[in-house]
Amino acid sequence: MTGWTRVEGRAVALPYENIDTDQLIPARFMSTPRAEGYGRFLLHDLREKGELPPLEGAEILIAGRNFGCGSSREAAVYALVDHGIRAVLAASFGDIFASNAVNNGLLPAQISDDLSARLLARCPAQISIDLAAGTVVVEDETHPFALDETWRLKLRNGWDDIDLTTQHGAAIRAFAKARQETRPWAWPAPENTDNETTRRGASA
Amino acid sequence: MTAPRTLFAKLWEAHEVLRREDGASLLWVDRHLVHEGSHHAFAKLDERGLEVANPELTFGVADHYAPTRGGLTEADPKVARMIETLVANTKRHGVRCFGLGDPRRGIVHVMGPEQGLTLPGLLIVCGDSHTSTHGAFGAIAFGIGATEVAHVLATQTIWQKRPKAMRITVEGRLGPGVSAKDIALGWIARLGSDGARGHAIEYAGPVVRGLSMEGRLTLCNLSIEGGARFGMVAPDAVTLEYLRTRPFAPEGVALERAAADWATLATDPGAAFDCEETIDARTIAPIVTWGTSPEDALPITGTVPDPARASAERAAHIRAALDYMDLAPGRSLEGTPIDEVFIGSCTNARIEDLRLAAAVLAGRRAKVPGIVSPGSAFVKVQAEAEGLDRVFIAAGLDWVDSGCSMCVAMNGDRVAPGRRCASTTNRNFRGRQGPGARTHLMSPAMVAAAAVAGGLADVRPMLEGRAVA
Ligand code: SF4
């Protein structure tokens, strides 16, 4: 993943609350290998019904509250990213969605209800986002957005968690060793195939 | 003296390998559960040539795509490929996997507790948002995305920022025909589907203490529908009793030693929460959803909301939801005709759920067709031993194998476009049960009542004079 600091592009409005991950990508498309691209699945059923503005050429989405609620499917983020979306602005996001977004370089920028309503009304519009400054600029207006500091660092630097964690290998091994000594029950017991659950299951 | 701590704080601190300057914690993962959806994560691992760090702490299970009628040979090739990929990935990395035909197989959040893989004091993750279910044992359990799944596979740890602490206390007593599902839908309707966003919920109070493990699992399961990634209940005698007969749980001296540690897993008196909510159980009636978000929920005695009487933003949502659901504002919920029913999912397909539904259906006929899919192969065996399958079949419902089935419509079981389904699942999102499907969420007893009435119905009169397990 490469880091970024600024995005400028066309913003499109999705004026609905609770756009869940089942809308972002219906479950039936999720067996597709990522290499085939997920962009065409983005908001598939809503677009098919003609309920959304055209998303072609959009790099930024403005949406109602609780965007990305629902399942943990990272495929929802793949669909956005593969369609060319770089940032979503909303009053709130599903927690799992937001962390998945950051892991794929997509910005979940939290804005006030008031700003959300005003931006929704102005779309489609040309918007620019400055990650370092934490601002959204639309024409001559500049507004702040909120983002967890860890996530800002990750997006700017394009950090990969596995690389970061590997540096802590010794600490992890020491932790695991101490845990196994003091909390041996935290490891699965050797499977007991002669107890009630198993016996009843086996009597099938 | 140390400051009083919440249960969540104790669990979190016990898993913290280190904390970075920016506040992110690296947490140790005790159990990692994978299912068919983990193919993205395994692909990421393979791309980088990485191994699974702790295969002995990782368990696989086929559930999301599991066929509920017949085996793989009859299944759609796409479904078969998903299951074969899971089996191949876990095998290659030395991870134990409960595949089709395994008596231990079931929906991941039913199987984990049932097999004793879920224990108090553990940190459990799975690439599925309903992982909050396992918190019912007094564990930290949360759903993660594919990048995080790959990270856990590679390192047995996960980076997280500590969420805020919230407590939902349920006082009073539940009325007859009212269950954990109604408590959950009730608070979600009150606080909104993002009401607990950024929080870890501890469920407490006499009503929660009085719930069985099954009820607690349902309550914690639905935390995510209110926006919380974590839900939990402090372990107690009920928890310990449940664990005594589980294949992967400690036994004998090991269990006694574990139980001594688990006894400390409670919120200290005086510990502070960032947010507190109290619910009086006596005010909870059986609840049904009318819209396309779990927050769109009302007592069965209510009427469909009128957008003209809501705020502008809310009105837009209500209008869109009613249009999708084909419901008129102001009509009473009771009596809304349904086309089919579904009893299943990680929310409400445990043995107690099936007993409740059967208590309503016994000696009655369903006016509409429907599927009953037990939460696991083990629940299926247990239900058949109790004769519950015969009750469902005699009522005219299909008794099928365990899987996610019509909760997510991945395996081919789905609600046809425009059809209305009374369902024990957790999400009434548009298209969740199939493109164009209309879902009403409710408890297993309420789904059974809807089946008998052929429309949304109040289960309470139907339970009069009947013994409920
Ligand atoms: S039953 Fe439904 S909610 Fe539960 S794990 Fe399966 S798909 Fe997810």
How does this structure look, described?
The complex is a heterodimer of chains A (204) and B (469). With 204 residues, chain A is of the alpha/beta class. Helix content of chain A is 35%, strand content 18%. Chain A contains nine helices and seven strands; from the N terminus they run E-H-H-E-H-E-H-E-H-E-E-E-H-H-H-H. Chain A has helices at residues 21-24, 44-48, 75-82, 95-102, 113-122, 149-157, 161-166, 169-182, 196-202; strands at residues 6-14, 58-63, 87-90, 107-110, 125-130, 135-138, 141-144. In chain A, helix 3 links the parallel strand 2 and strand 3 (87-90). The longest helix of chain A is centred in the C-terminal third of the chain and has 14 residues, at 169-182. The radius of gyration of chain A is 22 Å and the shape is globular. In chain A, 42% of the residues are buried. The model of chain A has no long low-confidence stretch (mean pLDDT 92). By secondary structure, chain B is of the alpha/beta class. In chain B, 32% of the residues lie in helices and 17% in strands. Chain B is built from 16 helices and 19 strands. Chain B has a five-stranded parallel β-sheet, with helices on both faces. In chain B, strand 13 (287-289) and strand 14 form a beta hairpin. In chain B, helix 6 (180-191) packs parallel to helix 8 (213-221). Classes of the chains: A alpha/beta (204), B alpha/beta (469). The interface between A and B is large, with 71 and 92 residues. Iron/sulfur cluster is lined by residues 63-64, 107-109, 128, 130, 345-346, 404, 407-408, 426 of chain B.
